[in-house]
Amino acid sequence: MLIPTTMQRLPSEIGCYNGQLLFGGAVSQMASALAQLTRVKFLGEAHYYVGREVGSVQGGRSWLIETGAFKGATTSNYLYQSTPMSSHLGLIIQYTSANFEFAGNTNVEIELRATGSNSYTGTVLDYGCKFTEVDLESDPNDALTAFTGTELISAPSNTLPEAPRPLFVPSANRGELLNIAVTTNNLVILGLHIYDLLDPEVTP
Amino acid sequence: MSNSFTSPPILVDPARLTSGLTIRSQEAQRLADMQNYAFAYGGSGDVLNQAWDAEVFEFTTTSMTDVCQWYIPHPSEEHVEFKLRLSSFSTVSGSTAKCTIQFPLSGNSYNATATITDSSRFNSVFDVITVPISAVEDELYAIVTLSLQAASGATIEVSAVQGSWSPLTSPLASRALDQYGQEVIPQGQSRLGVDLPLSSRFGVETLNNITQMRRRPRTLLNWSGVFASSSSTAKGLGAVDPQILFSEVALSAGLNLIGLDVDIFINAVNIGADPLLIDVFGYRLSVPLNGWNSIGVDVREPEETDRSNDFRLSMRRCGLMDTPHNAEVLLSFSNPITASPAPPYIKGIAIMGV
Lengths: 204, 354
What we know:
The complex is a heterodimer.
Chain A: H1 24-41, E1 45-51, E2 74-81, E3 88-97, E4 107-114, E5 124-131, E6 144-147, E7 167-168, E8 177-185, E9 187-196
Antiparallel strand pairs in A: 1-9, 2-8, 3-6, 3-7, 3-9, 4-5, 4-8
Chain B: H1 25-41, E1 46-52, E2 58-59, E3 65-73, E4 81-90, E5 96-102, E6 109-115, E7 127-132, E8 141-149, E9 156-165, E10 177-179, E11 182-184, H2 189-192, H3 200-214, E12 218-224, E13 246-250, E14 262-269, E15 276-280, E16 283-287, E17 291-297, H4 305-311, E18 315-319, H5 324-329, E19 345-353
Antiparallel strand pairs in B: 1-9, 2-9, 3-8, 4-7, 4-9, 5-6, 5-8, 10-11, 12-19, 13-18, 14-17, 14-19, 15-16
């Protein structure tokens, strides 16, 4: 069935009272509304803003990044509480990057890990993807975005990061706390947005 | 008559629900399954996320001190466990962190503490602070406060925080469930799983349950300044933040037609006689009070068309607006926090949709 993405008006409750004819249409509207709730409204999402050093006099962010912000391989971990519906995770990465001409390799690698025993280095669930200079823009003065897209891929089998794509959550790990490990080279993450992806057409 | 559910629930076959066809008991059972699942899991995803780069958020005070505060949604009275995951480290063992949840209308608060385990950034493990809610709290929102206490001679560095409510387990309790002071009636699987007439009560309760669960807020944006630190981290929103402090989120237009809206919470400091005006989510909002201000608005931001096509949802930019006005009123070189008299500024903002 097509999953309704917006909240539509519900049938009148009076239609369900004794003495009224309750046609299938009313029940169908209930089914649609519940499909919208469980598969659209209650999809998970997380929005990380990454704070950086600011001037103590200013007290707030007056520059995008400070001098010397670009570094070699640096891994950060972003926790994400998945839901039983979390099959694919789309990511929007807000970033600024070093000038490709003067920096070494500029890239971002994204990997999905389990968090057993609260560890950052739990089992790798998806070796994920890598944004290279082909996928990124070069501008140390602007806030830019990179996006994994929303393709509902089948379970991947790669053991090295591949071209940008959504992360795949194995069915056994859906509903668990997950770790999105992000490794950057000569690039600064300004924000990371994680989304459960909508499956718009589901066969009941 | 167990109020059980499967995770994830199986959809109802809509072709089975059109006029002229028999409504099978399987369909009715699945309707119950979806309601019970939605009550248990709805709103139990991430409600609070924030991160800091290395050496940005450091803390050395040896008494328990409030450092950050966020507004978060509260799914229902039945969701009574909140988990805050803290990615942090302490250079000397024995430093602690406390999470306090306060309900703004009742004034009740609950807290728990944890010892910070790691000794370097993302070294080994994150810490979990589990806060139990022991009384019935019927509010849509709660306030989360993070407090830190460094061991003697220690520096705590916070890398990230993540928070969520624990979902309920199957089966749901065999009674009317409470959400925001109103009832949600879980549905018995075995009663609906037999070929008996669909009762009037089932229809009325289902419609009521759906209406209730549509109200549950979800976090679209959440940010807190760092009130106390030993490093140069942002205390308030700065002039560059409008370029980055926003989310792209799914929000349908016309929510107001079914009585729903978007709630914006702003935590302000140094507000004088004149309110602070700030451009957020398509509105110029007036912030008249020190502390948390609450403003309800309709959706009027235009769709972000490109992302809407990708996500197959109506995606909108939600957050601070990149306007000359915001650049003028937020903290900056020309409007520093150290000025005299002290300028008004924003030390926390949260935007909640449905």
